[in-house]
Amino acid sequence: MAKIVSSWNDWDPLKRVIVGRCDNSVIPPEEPATSEKVPVDSEMRGMWGLRPLETVERGNECLENLVKILEDRGVVVDRPTPLQWNQAIGTPDFRNDSMMTCMPPRDILLTIGNEIMAAANSFRCRYFEYLAYWPLMEMYFEQDPDFKWTQAPRPRLTDKSYKHNYYDEKITLEERLERTAAKDFVTTEVEPMWDAADVMRMGKDLFIQHGLTTNRAAMDWFQRYYPEFRVHAVNFPGDPYPIHIDATFVPLRPGLIINNPHRPLPEPQRAIFEANDWQIVEAADPAHTEPPALCYSSVWLSMNCLVLDPKTVIVEASEVHQQEQMDKLGMNVIPCDLRDAYPFGGGLHCSTADVYREGECLDYFP
Ligand code: DAV
After folding, report:
1. Cα–Cα distance measured from residue 250 to residue 227, given in angstroms and rounded to the nearest whole number
2. Residue 246 in domain
């Protein structure tokens, strides 16, 4: 029996990873927590249904580019089993006309040491997405005697979990920023809700973004579940659509983080990094002024890179400024053509979930 699952951070040498799939992906119908994240002028407002087949095929081609790079370097790649995502779903508490996709895995699966936990996502359309990863979890469970297979408490996602009419169509960018600064988000605090991509793992410390997809109750839940860890709630007042930490604050190796210059980590929260001699560098500008068509995320997926080891990083092929900066920061850069997978939920980091990285649980902030 082998050790298959272990990962404590985002930079130790990567040996095994899950890469998502675009098959059957759906633009989900509007529900209480999703419309908040679609910019008012987005072409996607009011639109829902299966994504066009040619975009799915192209997205999958991009993910295959990533799989090839990883496999050529000896990384074992596992893939989810897509469901027919355009089915209606229901629980005793809600009904939804459709599910979404099994992209990106980073939102759903959180690996901490020998444990992989399915998240407590706040979107109803993502309630059953974990099922796509269950065949892999069964395999890890069978083959790795130490693997801890966990599901976080499932949120009920009743109407009480959301502030209704939180945003109307007329809200300005300034108003959105004021709400972010006031930590006033669409979710309520009746139950812990979180996306795994809001959690940045750094050995004994977990930095968790409080925003549209993760609430304060989640921070409290994490601290009680992992009493031996330090849980830090972080937030980035410059972000009008704060979802997921991985296009905002991205570690490259111990001691070095790139930070989105439009979303700087505020002063009191910087102290722990500075006190421990970590360098926070402003990320280079994205190469694009617009995200690709039918994409929810911002152009800052430019910094959503996949670190293979503390000297090697995969960066999207068209993101020339980010590549140049990484190179100057002493990293070997591997470009990967992935931009047409962005509409399915994210970049290189988003599209993956850690299974195994070498290394131990260290204390980087003693
Ligand atoms: O900048 O739109 C995207 C994060 C996706 N995991 C952004 C955040």
Report:
1. 25
2. yes
Q: Which residue range forms the structural domain that includes residue 269?
A: 14-357
Q: Tell me the pLDDT of the chain averaged across its residues.
A: 94
Q: Is 300 in the pocket of ligand 1 (CB under 6 A)?
A: yes
Query: With bands split at pLDDT 50, 70 and 90, how would you rate the model's confidence at 35?
Result: low
Distance CA 193, CA 212 (A): 10
User: pLDDT tens digit string along 71-126?
Assistant: 999 999 999 999 999 999 999 999 999 999 999 999 999 999 999 999 999 999 99
Q: In terms of residues, how long is the chain? A: 366
Does the CB atom of residue 263 touch ligand 1 within 6 A? Answer: no
pLDDT tens-place string over residues 262-287:
999 999 899 999 999 999 999 999 99
ipTM of this complex? 0.94
Residue 366 is assigned to a structural domain of this protein? no
Query: Does 34 reside within a domain?
Result: yes
The finding on whether 305 has its CB within 6 A of some atom of ligand 1 is: no
Å from CA of 241 to ligand 1 middle: 9
Beta bridge partners of 266: none
364 found inside a domain: no
The amino acid at 343: P
Note if 262 is an active site residue.
no
Separation CA 142–CA 344 (nearest Å): 31
Count of domains forming the chain: 1
C-alpha 243 to ligand 1 mean position (Å)? 6
129 closest CA partner among 86, 191, 93, 85: 85
**77-81, 87-91, 136-140, 293-297: least confidently modelled range:** 293-297
> Annotated catalytic, 244?
yes
Q: How many angstroms separate the CA atoms of 266 and 273, rounded? A: 12
91: exposed, middle or buried (C-beta count within 10 Å: 0-12, 13-18, 19+)?
middle
**CATH number, domain at 203?**
3.75.10.10
